[in-house]
Structures are given as structure tokens and as C-alpha cells.
Amino acid sequence: MLKKTITYEDYNGNTITEDFYFNLSKAEVIEMEASTTGGYGEMLKKIVEEKNIPLMMTTFKTFILKSVGIKSEDGKHFRKNAEIAADFESSEAYSVLFSELCTSAEAATAFIAGILPMDANQRKDLLEKAKNTPLPESI
What we know:
Structural class: alpha+beta
Largest sheet: 4 strands, antiparallel
Order of helices and strands: EEHHHEEHHHH
Strand content: 15-25%
Number of helices: 7
Low-confidence stretches: none
Number of domains: 1
Radius of gyration: 15 Å
Mean pLDDT: 85
Shape: globular
């Protein structure tokens, strides 16, 4: 699970700093992997190698909206649904996060590593690979 603190300006002109939570469960990752020919991981690798900017942006959006949710106070539940995703997408916080992911390979990789159910070594490997894989400059 990733807790992301985002500062943004709301539609009333107020500067707000707020914590948001993002997570993909093992079941969700298995579904994503199975729903993509060759697997989701291979698709992501191909997107980066081909510098397919439109698909890269769509993928960031998918990851953000599929993973945003509300963590219960006791930590037993993480509520996600279309309404929560739509509320987040309609906020300036979404714009700030989306822009960050589209302009920084390190931020994008850290976000993905933070939402995926992996151990610390897997996250470290993913972050190391990101340092050597810059985003296309035309984003």
C-alpha cells in the first residue's frame, strides 16, 4: 500500500495538502496479468521500450484509478469503487499525481512499486531498473 501526500489547489483557490492511499491486491494483479496477452509485466516493458506515450499515459491512469481507495481505521479493509475513483479523478490532486508520473520515471516507478504487492527486494530491483530507463522526453 502506498500513502501519497499531495498538495494541490482546490476549485475554490485553497491550497490543500491531503493524504491519499493506493493499493492493488494480489487478486487484482493476477486478474490484470491474466487479462493481457503475454502478461501485464511484458506489456509494460514493451510500452517503455517502444516509447509508446499514449499507451503509457493510459496505463498510468489505469494504475491510479484502479488502486485509489480508502483505508479503514483498523487497517482490515481497503474500500475501492467507481465512486471513489471518479471523485479522485475529478480533483486537482489527480492532476498533480498524473503530471508527476508522466514527467518522472523515478516517481512513476516508485508509485507502481508502492501499489504492487511485492516484497522489499522486489521493490528495490524495480526502482534500480527505473533509474536506467528514462521516460521519453516528449511527455
